[in-house]
Structures are given as C-alpha cells and as structure tokens.
Amino acid sequence: MCLSGRAMLVDPGTRLTDFIGHYRKRNSPMKALLCKAFGPASTLVLEDVPSPEIKKNEILLDVHAAGVNFPDTLIIEGKYQFKPPFPFSPGGEAAGVIAAVGENVSHLKPGDRVMALTGWGSFAEQVAVPHYNVLPIPESMDFTTAAAFSMTYGTSMHALKQRANLQPGETLLVLGASGGVGLAAVEIGKALGARVIAAASSSEKLEVARNAGADELINYSETSLKDEVKRLTQGNGADVIYDPVGGDLFDQAIRTIAWNGRLLVVGFASGRIPELPINLALLKETL
C-alpha cells in the first residue's frame, strides 16, 4: 500500500477479503491492516483479529472502501496529536453497509449504506463507529467516492464557510491545490462564488485544479508565488488563503494577504510548521 498526502482509496473488496458486506458472528475473525509499532507504511501487517463489539451508541460497519489521507501517514509514524494504543488499524474514514446497531441507535439500521469518520480503524473488514459520526450515502454516490468525501470536503467546507466566511466575488488562494483538501477547496470556493487562484508544484497538478474550476493557476516551482498573486490581484492580494502545506509557501503566501484577509491554516504537508510574522497581521488587520 502506498500512502501520500493526497486522499486515495483502499478497496477492501479486493485487498482484504472476498466476503465484505456479510454479517459475522460477534468476535469472529476478520482481516485488518495493523500498526504494531510507529514507522512507515511498509511496516503495516495484514492479520486476523476479532471482529469489534459495538457499544450502545455505536454501529458496526462492513467496510467496502476506506479513504487514505495525510493524517493517516502521521498517525502510523507517531507524529499526530493522538496516538492509538498498539496494535491498531489506521484509516480515518470509510464507507460501507451497516451490519448491526447498538441498542441506543434508532435512526440507523442494518443494511443502510453510510459513510463514517472513524479516527482510526477503517483499514479493516469491520469497524465500530459512534452513530453521530455516520451519515447516509446518497443513492447516486458509490462507496469509493463516499469513503474519500467526509474528511476532505468536510475540512474545506468548515474552513471556507464557517471560519473564513468566504463571500461571492472574493479572491481565494489555494495552496497544494491538487491534493485532497486543496482540490475540495477549489471546488467549494467556486461553488461559493469566489475567484479561485490555484497554486501547485507542476503543470500536471494545475491541470487537475483547472478541471475542478480554478480561475487562475500558479506553478510555484517555476515562479514566485508572492509576485504572481500580487500580479493577478493588481496588488490587492488574496482575501482568503487556504494553506494545507506550510513551510516556505506559507512564508510567501502570508505576504500576499489582502486588507482584512483571512488565513486558513489547514496543515503542514511540507513538514515545517511556519511562524507568523505578527506585524503582518497587525498591518493587514488579518484574522
């Protein structure tokens, strides 16, 4: 299995078992991809483990597909803000069919097609999930799409709408625009009526962002991000900066923020957590 910063899909129907989706007796064996010690993805092992027992407020999910996101790589390396006890199965989101529900769960039932945010545990044939982290899947959505939806689109929607309050006509700068959360930010930004400037490290990645609706493209491996944003905005800067990358790109991007601009710190895929020159926040009245 290959893990990367961009959301990918793991299909347990072909990778883990031939009988996904069928109900098992409690504690009967299931396949799970396990992390037994912090390290790279190559150290994960596939083993038989007991099927999880559900609590009163949980559902038991037969996993049909699981999303792979950047936090999963951090969790298995011991670099995330929480550290599950060993051994654990990674995987923060999944989609599948409910096999059983706890006695306090009344709005969901066995057989329902759902997506779920699990924190960890999704790289297994079954996972127990609190009912409040589970949502029905529309009939038009397949399992693989649903498995990669909640974390990327949920993160970007929360950031752009609830935190930045992005308005129609404003300029949105998206760093890492072809990655999972970045691409979702491009699509949501356009849906909210913003002018979207997509920034990425190659022409191939930028073409993906263009197809998602980006209005302007910046290849920051070939040109100055700061200079290009200023040129594209006639010196006004970006009203909202969406940054899942951090590092050197943050250092350039923060100097392109508009008056009363909003900075969305989403992650640090570059590996370096940057420091904010607080005088810039003062001068631009930045949030």
What is the C-level CATH assignment of the largest domain?
Answer: Alpha Beta
Helices and strands: which structural class?
alpha/beta
Q: How helical, in percent, are the residues? A: 25-40%
Low-confidence stretches: 1-25
Based on CA atoms alone, the radius of gyration comes out at 21 Å
**H/E element order:** EHEEEHEEEEHHEHEHEHEHEH
Q: How many domains, as an integer?
A: 2
Count of distinct strands: 13
Mean pLDDT: 90
Total helix count?
A: 9
Content of β-strand:
25-35%
Report the biggest beta sheet as strand number plus sense, adding barrel if it closes.
6 strands, antiparallel
CATH second-level architecture of the largest domain: Alpha-Beta Complex
Described by the principal axes of the CA atoms, the overall outline is elongated
List keywords for this structure.
single chain, alpha/beta, Quinone Oxidoreductase, Chain A, domain 1, Rossmann fold, 2 domains, six-stranded antiparallel β-sheet, five-stranded parallel β-sheet, 9 helices, disordered N terminus
What can you tell me about this protein's structure?
This protein has 287 residues and is of the alpha/beta class. The protein folds into two domains: 29-149, Alpha-Beta Complex (Quinone Oxidoreductase, Chain A, domain 1); 164-284, 3-Layer(aba) Sandwich (Rossmann fold). It has nine helices and 13 strands. Helix 4 crosses helix 5. It is elongated and about 65 Å long.
